[in-house]
């Protein structure tokens, strides 16, 4: 696509266009979903979005889209997915999951797998509480106390 071409805004992304976009985002997810925000990373992300847009527009039966439109669509898909997963988690806690909600977003699990660190707080809670073992708790406390004491001794340079 050349710079002098005018891209007419398409009304909506079709399901086919969204699936193509998801496949391309998955291909470049390590760059696009990187949390760094320094100048080099931002420039790399922009070049990657431009390359992704070029690949996307070379696909048959898609409307021509600018990289900004594709990026915005991806951000909207992520936001909807996070919102639905948070709702499902709240419903799971209430023990009544809505079956209609889980089929709402195209490839929800695929999207969630691309964003594991962002969705960490949305993970499902354990089904049952772990048993309390007083001996294990005491041992952990003892190990932590011993480690703290060793660090104190090492940092002060004093050994008794």
Automatic annotation (TrEMBL):
Pfam families from the UniProt entry: Myb_DNA-bind_5
- Which residue positions does the secretion signal occupy? none
> Which InterPro entries does the record cross-reference, listed alphabetically?
Myb_DNA-bind_5
From which domain of life does this come?
A: Eukaryota
Myb/SANT-like DNA-binding domain residues:
10-87
Family recorded in the similarity comment: Belongs to the MSANTD3 family.
Q: Which PANTHER family match?
A: MYB_SANT-LIKE DNA-BINDING DOMAIN-CONTAINING PROTEIN 3 (PTHR21632:SF2), REGULATORY PROTEIN ZESTE (PTHR21632)
Name of the protein described by the UniProt record: Myb/SANT-like DNA-binding domain-containing protein 3
**Organism the protein comes from:** Daubentonia madagascariensis
